[in-house]
Specification:
Blueprint (H helix, E strand, L loop, with lengths): L4 E6 L2 E6 L5 E10 L2 E9 L11 H16 L14 H13 L3 H6 L5 H14 L1
Antiparallel strand pairs: 1-2, 2-3, 3-4
Length: 127
């Protein structure tokens, strides 16, 4: 539920889709350059029925953020467009656009089935 993006690489193209709608928002094409790869093209979906983004500069910042956060596992600063009020930008807007980052998911310790059952039984007994 918290994942907002579905990201995958096919051939030399990185696709970034919104997970709930399935709309492809970004495509980044790479070309091998020696032992490394370089970006040769980045595309943004401007279909108004699939999104309302119109600011190329912000899209560059957001695309860099998504790659740094979800693929490279860096700790980038979340880009906030200038028209978003500062009070909403800190958490709500970040969650709306990017969801929960991988570090937030790692902080939650997975619960085994027996531990979950024991916690549920204690909750049931307490009423």
């Amino acid at each position: 539920m918290e994942d907002k993006w579905f990201i995958f690489l096919e051939d030399d193209v990185l696709y970034l889709h919104r997970s709930w709608t399935g709309f492809c928002i970004y495509q980044v094409s790479f070309k091998k350059d020696g032992a490394q790869y370089r970006v040769v093209e980045a595309l943004i979906n401007r279909d108004p029925s699939q999104g309302s983004a119109t600011d190329d500069g912000y899209d560059v910042d957001l695309l860099n953020y998504l790659i740094d956060e979800f693929l490279l596992r860096k700790c980038p600063t979340f880009p906030v467009p200038p028209d978003v009020p500062p009070g909403i930008a800190t958490g709500l807007y970040h969650h709306h656009v990017a969801g929960v980052g991988p570090r937030a998911r790692e902080a939650i310790e997975p619960m085994g089935a027996l531990r979950w059952l024991w916690a549920w039984l204690k909750w049931l007994i307490r009423g």
